[in-house]
Amino acid sequence: MLCTVCGGTEFTAQPVLWPELIDQWQLSPAEVAYVDCQQGECCSSCGANLRSIALANALRAVVGTPQVLRDFVGSAEAGPIHILELNEAGTLNPVLSRMPCHVFGAYPQVDMHALPWPDETFDIVVHSDTLEHVPDPVHALVECRRVLKPTGTLCLTVPIIVGRMTRGRAGLSKSYHGNPQQNGDDYVVHTEFGADAWCLIFEAGYSDVTIFPVAYPAALAIAARR
Ligand SMILES: [Zn+2]
After folding, report:
1. Cα–Cα distance between 118 and 137 in angstroms, integer?
2. What distance in angstroms lies between residue 148's CA and the mean position of ligand 1's atoms?
3. pLDDT value of residue 34
């Protein structure tokens, strides 16, 4: 396998799920295996996990480059691209930050329900494993679409369990990604995404959805044209 972030070919793996989360999510052993693969298998050179690589592939397709992402961001073609990164997009943050027209915003200063930028500002909006923590994911997607130029594209990842449908966690016990003792309610999960995750994107008004798999079903990234 090739790391399309840096060009590396060596990978190391470690499990990332813990028993309480497996129980809350009611994950099967096969689902545990692929989520661990998605989050825990990392490029030995740059540390990108499979979801970051899937997201890099979505970004590379959107800009139409055959280069690995680290090379592309330093190229002349990357210069004029206005890109908004919301919350650190995993290991891609230091790479994307090298683009001259890169803008970064993070919760709680920047709320996805009320983005502090005018309409039609960006060519690309990118976020990774953020949407499941937002109270109203369709509204957050509408906000991302609002700040995209008419030719713009949203690139994102969300954790998707492909064998089930999307469900809100309202009324269920609180579930967290990361350590709740450390992170408080910022990391609480509002939505568990399933095989119909793409429906929310069309509900938010996007015209086109493309899904980029890496080691399916381990890691999926989505590109949605405004
Ligand atoms: Zn890499």
Report:
1. 20
2. 28
3. 83
Q: Which residues contact 133 (CB under 8 A, 6 or more apart)?
A: 177, 186, 187, 188, 189, 190
Mention every residue, 6+ apart, whose C-beta is less than 8 A from residue 114: 143
Rounded Cα distance between 164 and 160, Å, is 9
Could you give the domains of the chain?
17-225 (3.40.50)
Q: Which two tokens stand for residue 205?
A: 């008004």
Q: pLDDT means per 10 residues in the chain (226 residues)?
A: 96 89 89 85 94 97 98 98 95 96 96 97 97 95 98 96 86 65 66 94 98 91 98
How far, in Å, CA of 167 to CA of 192, rounded? 5
Ligand 1 centroid, distance to 3 Cα (angstroms) = 5
Q: pTM of the entire structure?
A: 0.90
Residues near 224 by beta carbon (within 8 Å), at least 6 away in sequence: 141, 153, 154, 155, 156, 201, 206, 208, 209, 210
Token digits of residue 163: 């064998």
Pairing of strands 83-86, 122-128: parallel
Taking the centre of ligand 1 as the mean of its atom positions, its distance from the CA of residue 45, in whole angstroms, is 5
